[in-house]
Amino acid sequence: MLPDADLRFPGNIAAGPVLRQIQQEAVQTTAASPAFISRLLDGCQRTGTVMSRLQKIYVGGAPVFPGLLRRAKHFCPNAKIISVYGSTEAEPMAEIALSDISQADFEAMERGKGLLAGHPVACISLRVIRDQWGTPIPPLDHATFEREIVPVDEPGEIAVSGAHVLPGYLNAESSAETKFEVDGVRWHRTGDLGYLDAGGRLWLLGRCSGKVQDERGTLYPFAVECAVMQNPAIRRAALAMVDGCRVLAIETKEHLTADAVLRSLPRVNLDQVVFLNRVPVDKRHNAKIDYPALHRKLKNLKAS
């Protein structure tokens, strides 16, 4: 067993010991956060290692961008690679295998259509409702709830219900913010924005609290971040609104210019591209953008 200290921060693990253990134990299936898998793939790239015995790789706990899936296939050629969308309160909600993502899907993500999460899993009910995040939803009857559901391809708030969905919290106030009932059935508000396409697949657009709205319209975080992350030189990207300015924060693996980033996003009206040594991420998975911390960091940069 590896020392616990090596695994407390998935985005900073020493890949070598983990790769050796995977090989020694002939591991066939693994599930991990994107940050953890990315570190393993970095180790594979440095050492020329191929994890040919792996048969299945589940990646989740944070956004799983197409570039990571493609890299995983390169270094794990025999594995079925599956992106899983879920949350602490409902895991899983949707999933998709790399092999089920078409070239047209990849191109749609490059054009800013969001991040494809796949079909909702069979054991869950998933709906996209009118975005009203921040406002409690009172008990509804079925007919009223149906009127809250948005049409195909229209962005809205993702809500789920099912036997494995957390019904509530110890803190009743939190439950009031994220739970509501439809004819006595408890639903969970994920706080995520997305839409269902004509094939019933879920596309993610980012957190409800993260969308950028001004007189120019609405920008959704994943629509921008997923598109720009197609560039392999970009390690991480995050959209934020700072003092009325649309700012894209970039963490790179190699030198890039703001002009190069902006040229890759011709349909996105940004005010500024900022390069950071490190874009803040969550402590648990080291992969989800910590938007409040990012906002503070960008505000401090602007003030200095």
The CATH architecture category of the largest domain equals 3-Layer(aba) Sandwich
> The biggest beta sheet, please?
10 strands, mixed
What is the CA-CA span between the terminal residues?
46 Å
Low-confidence stretches: 1-5
Mean pLDDT: 92
Task: Quote the CATH topology of the largest domain.
Answer: Rossmann fold
Share of β-strand residues: 25-35%
Radius of gyration based on Cα positions: 20 Å
In percent, how helical is the residue content?
25-40%
Total number of beta strands: 15
Enumerate how many helices there are, as a single number.
Answer: 9
Task: Walk me through the structure.
This protein is of the alpha+beta class and 304 residues long. The chain folds into three domains: 4-112, Rossmann fold (3-Layer(aba) Sandwich); 125-204, Luciferase, Domain 3 (Luciferase, domain 3), CATH 2.30.38.10; 209-303, 2-Layer Sandwich (GMP Synthetase, Chain A, domain 3). It has helices at residues 15-24, 34-47, 66-75, 103-110, 142-148, 172-178, 221-228, 258-263, 291-303; strands at residues 29-32, 56-60, 80-87, 90-97, 115-120, 125-129, 156-161, 179-182, 185-196, 202-207, 212-214, 217-219, 234-242, 245-252, 272-275. Strands 1, 2, 3, 4, 5, 6, 7, 8, 9 and 10 form a ten-stranded mixed β-sheet that branches. It is globular and about 60 Å long.
